[in-house]
Design goal:
The protein is α+β, with helices and mostly antiparallel strands. Helices cover 43% and strands 10% of the residues. The strands form two sheets. A four-stranded mixed β-sheet has the order 2-1-3-4, sandwiched between helices. The longest helix is centred in the first third of the chain and has 22 residues, at 57-78.
């Protein structure tokens, strides 16, 4: 069994930043990581997007679900390690590359977006057929439910489960800057140590910097604009 389970939605920039940090820790601690699914679209299935989110959030989250269908097909046909390879290629295209004027939120759920990502990951182009395969939603829903059972439902992505099945699990941490290799391990030990205390529930501030990701227009040496994420998301109200 893997040392860590990392539940992600590929369109979430904060999940991507946290995954880059986890990969730094993984390399230094020789952890094995099982990359698993949590869909923001399914988490918010009962939410009125028009009333509670900024524009394009519903199409963006729907694109994330479509990409997770591809991840589910990838795992079924090519194994669990291939999910990590696909997620890395998706994140590099979405967030580590300069902004693409043609890269709208809804386009991210199309073959026009996905085909070059699959090619860069060395995965078959036929996997893109899963974008429209709603039968795979049952797999994504099951892992979304699995992730939320570990933390409670008022969370987003990512969710990390350390030393499953008995180990500690938590949402986040939400970080906007990638730490150095040395700081990555220290931060990891602090986070896991705090989360491992049986009575611990939450340590939080809702002010967030836009992550240092080129795809969001923030260079690694810049500090992103700070926003107040009410209720842990950009919902306008509850």
């Amino acid at each position: 069994m893997a040392d860590l389970r990392f539940y992600f939605d590929p369109v979430c920039p904060f999940a991507w930043m946290t995954s880059r940090w986890v990969r730094l820790v993984q390399a230094q601690r020789d952890y094995s990581v099982d990359w698993r699914f949590v869909s923001l679209r399914l988490v918010n299935a009962a939410v009125d997007y028009d009333a509670q989110f900024p524009p394009d959030y519903e199409v963006g989250h729907t694109a994330g679900l479509r990409l997770l269908r591809v991840a589910a097909r990838t795992r079924a046909e090519h194994g669990r390690a291939a999910v990590g390879t696909l997620y890395e290629a998706l994140g590099q295209r979405l967030f580590d590359s300069p902004p693409d004027p043609e890269d709208s939120a809804d386009r991210r759920g199309t073959r026009a977006f996905l085909d070059p990502v699959l090619a860069s990951a060395g995965l078959p182009a036929a996997l893109a057929e899963a974008l429209d395969d709603a039968s795979l939603d049952a797999v994504v829903q099951a892992e979304t439910d699995e992730a939320l059972a570990l933390t409670g439902r008022d969370v987003g992505t990512p969710i990390i489960h350390v030393q499953p099945p008995a180990g500690v699990a938590f949402f986040g941490p939400v970080i906007s800057r990638l730490p150095s290799e040395a700081d990555a391990v220290r931060l990891w030990d602090h986070v896991v140590g705090l989360a491992s205390f049986p009575g611990f529930a939450e340590l939080k501030r809702s002010l967030r910097e836009l992550p240092q990701l080129r795809g969001l227009g923030v260079e690694p040496d810049e500090v992103g604009e700070q926003e107040d994420w009410h209720g842990g998301s950009r919902r306008r109200h509850h």
